[in-house]
Amino acid sequence: MTFDDRKILLIEEFLKIDDQDVIKALEILIEQNKVTRYEENLKPMSISELNEEIDMGIKDEQENKLISVRDLKEQVKKF
């Protein structure tokens, strides 16, 4: 059975589930898997990368490219 066949079979079985607790457990499992995969790909910044990020932030501030939290909240409300 191919990988795609297995995914289709899994979807078909998922659609047959009638128990909310089972659905919730699967949702939790999927979310935990996402978090685990994300965390596995995290790498610490080097000192030079950190300094570069700081320099970019300072430059953005000097060029008035920043937005206040208050203004950002107002913009988000318009979405």
UniProtKB/TrEMBL annotation:
This is Addiction module component. It comes from Sphingobacterium hungaricum.
